[in-house]
């Protein structure tokens, strides 16, 4: 039961982050003026577009510098890095892109649950039963993170 409460607490932090998004800097598409969601590659290469200096992913706080360092870390088959990147990108997109499509808070429950049970660097293999269960949640976030108007 304690794991669920921790996941709910993480979700509450995410909701607070999203609620504070109005008035924050917009992430512009490269070379244009329209806004769109971006994947982890964009956020890694454009630190000035980040709407926050600290992010909360999987129950842990990371400075922008720490998060970018993690984005630059090769996954080496560890799917916790893949999920972490999708959750981070979704959070930044929701905070930075006011025209982003609606993303239900429920879409973050499974990814946050995954990161609560399997912290970053836990070594979850792509071929594991665990990833087979959670990979659809990562795919949903990936679709959101690659949305274009």
List keywords for this structure.
about 150 residues; mainly alpha; two-stranded antiparallel sheet; globular
Q: How are the secondary structure elements laid out?
A:
Layout lengths: L1 H18 L20 H6 L8 E4 L2 E4 H8 L7 H18 L12 H9 L11 H17 L4
Antiparallel strand pairs: 1-2
Helix pairs in contact: 1-5, 4-5, 4-6
How would you characterize the overall build of this protein?
- The protein has one domain (2-145).
- Strands 1-2 form a two-stranded antiparallel sheet.
- Mean pLDDT is 81; it is low at 4-34.
- With 149 residues, the chain is mostly helical.
- It starts with a helix and ends with a helix.
- It has helices spanning 2-19, 40-45, 64-71, 79-96, 109-117, 129-145, and strands spanning 54-57, 60-63.
Total helical segments: 6
The SSE string, one letter per element, is HHEEHHHH
Helix/strand-derived category reads mainly alpha
Q: If you compute it from the alpha carbons, what radius of gyration comes out, rounded to the nearest whole angstrom?
A: 15 Å
Tally of DSSP β-strands: 2
């Amino acid at each position: 039961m304690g794991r669920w409460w921790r996941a709910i607490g993480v979700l509450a932090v995410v909701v607070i982050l999203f609620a504070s998004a109005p008035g924050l800097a917009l992430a512009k598409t490269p070379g244009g003026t329209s806004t769109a969601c971006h994947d982890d590659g964009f956020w890694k290469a454009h630190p000035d577009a980040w709407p926050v200096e600290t992010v909360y992913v999987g129950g842990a706080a990371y400075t922008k510098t720490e998060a970018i360092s993690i984005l630059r870390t090769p996954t080496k088959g560890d799917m916790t890095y893949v999920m972490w990147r999708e959750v981070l990108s979704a959070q930044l997109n929701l905070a930075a892109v006011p025209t982003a499509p609606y993303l239900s808070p429920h879409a973050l429950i499974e990814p946050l649950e995954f990161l609560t049970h399997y912290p970053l660097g836990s070594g979850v293999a792509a071929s594991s039963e665990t990833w087979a269960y959670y990979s659809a949640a990562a795919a949903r976030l990936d679709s959101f993170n690659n949305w274009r108007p």
